[in-house]
Design a protein that fits this description.
Length: 354
Amino acid sequence: MTNSHTTNEVMHSLVEVTRNSDIGLLNLSICHALFHILDAKKVSLYTFYYNAKEIECVISNEVDKSNSKNVSDSGSLELFDYKAVDGLVDCLKKNSAVISKENKSNHTVFYPISNKSNKVAAIFEIIAPSGKTGLDMSFYANYLQVYKNYLNLLIDSELDTLTGLLNRRTFDKDLKKIISDKRRKPDEKGKKGAHPMRRTQKIGNTHWLAIIDIDFFKRVNDEFGHLYGDEVLLLLANIMRETFRSIDILFRFGGEEFIVILRDISLEGANNALERFRKNVESFAFPQVGQVTVSIGFVEITHHPIPTEVLGFADEALYYSKEHGRNQLNQYEALIADNLLQKRDFPGDDVEIF
């Protein structure tokens, strides 16, 4: 417990933090709460992503005396070289809090937040006056356990129960957020004053939305039963996780349709990633079922400021793929340029997608 804040003030801050049902706002709110309760110099939240090759880290939030930002909701993500920070490395390895002295008056606490698989999903870095907390780890443990429990509830509500990918309701929210951020924040490529340990992941600051549909999925259910159909969905979700980058966003849209939002990548990079996924599915031996293929349509998000347009154009490219042989990939803008599709208008932003 802090010396300068009463129990009532701390409890009030928890009440305010847990008013947020959006994970991005929750993370920003918890950083601000810790910043004020501890009279901190700085509070940062690092998020960790695991893939087959390495662990990647981004700074999700950062609050200090002169700056407050929510990096995870911005138009582009920046990878952070966490291996250059001893406290982060130790905290990640031990999955327990690490304390280091900055000087006589300040200390830094690295506090991990683990997921249900007991992997470190995030780490708080808190630089605070030593006298304010007395290095009392029970305060961090109790306060952040409430945050962790509430966060896990929110995460569960955003996941598809079968595949573990993000669900359809979350897709609607995330797409609107990405488009809103694109309107508000132009490309900041070349912005001065970047953190020396950050390396940008962006190439042109372009996002893409792809709709993936399993070819002849009804036949799988009819011939092999829904149990094997569900297994195909599960295995396809796993192939998505293995194929795409940790910063890309993966959804089960419903039935046999999936969506991936490819973040901060060139057209060539997006095309290569989606084609690699298509081939990975085609070459995978699904138990009992054998070969399964997918059709894909994708569109650039950046140039289409309305969610219904983005989804509708990707859907048109998908149907072109399905109507012209299936097991293929097509980009909406290329189909329009080649006069293979005719551009049409979709309902405005005031019309709900679902």
